[in-house]
From TrEMBL:
Database matches in Gene3D superfamilies: Spore Coat Polysaccharide Biosynthesis Protein SpsA, Chain A (3.90.550.10)
Molecular function terms, GO-annotated: molybdenum cofactor cytidylyltransferase activity
Protein name, UniProt field: Molybdenum cofactor cytidylyltransferase
Catalytic activity, EC: 2.7.7.76
Length: 186
């Protein structure tokens, strides 16, 4: 499973007749792996343009008592893993990585067949996706907050997958990031 989490307006910004989100999703889909997207109620209809409704996990804004639900990458990862508990493993990638190649996604997926965890690396710098084998299911379900899965990577043997793909490091969080990407005519 490749998981993506759309978070902000930059994900929907134009990128040469495309959006950051749609390009990121297309690359995940082009990998041929199952894709599950964790998102908010507001963004779910947009995501469902590219991914079947059954593969969209909507994290509610409020719980049954009307309290705001906790936010953060850890909760989103746990929700995606919970929705696909029978997967052969999980790859985590933010939805704002439009240059990440499908071949890089597949390389990290192959690594978790041999290691509990793996991550993409370009010239010694860690990027996305980050992958986890089924043996880490319970650990992934326990994630909370903004920490994401860093503590799991630190706790278990993980394999760096050196790739010739600078896109594993390129995320679009700000207008400046988007402008920089547009200037490269991608």
């Amino acid at each position: 499973m490749a998981g993506l989490e759309p978070e902000g307006a930059a994900d929907f910004a134009d990128l040469s007749q495309d959006t950051v989100l749609s390009r990121s999703l297309r690359h995940a889909i082009d990998s041929g792996l199952p894709v599950v997207v964790v998102t908010t109620p507001k963004l779910a209809p947009l995501v469902q343009r590219w991914v079947a409704s059954a593969d969209v996990v909507v994290r509610p804004d409020f719980d049954a008592q009307g309290r705001p639900t906790p936010v953060g990458m850890g909760y989103s990862i746990a929700a995606g893993v919970s929705a696909s508990g029978d997967a052969d493993g999980w790859l985590i990638m933010p939805a704002d990585m439009p240059l990440l190649r499908p071949s890089s996604i597949l390389a990290v997926a192959a690594a978790i067949e041999q290691y509990p965890a793996a991550f993409a690396q370009y010239k010694g710098r860690q990027g996305h996706p980050v992958g986890f084998s089924p043996e880490l299911y319970s650990e992934l379900l326990d994630l909370q907050g903004d920490e994401g899965a860093r503590r799991i990577l630190a706790r278990y043997p993980s394999q760096a997958v050196e790739l010739d793909d600078p896109g594993i490091l390129v995320d679009v969080d700000t207008v400046e990031d988007l402008d920089r990407l547009r200037s490269q005519k991608v």
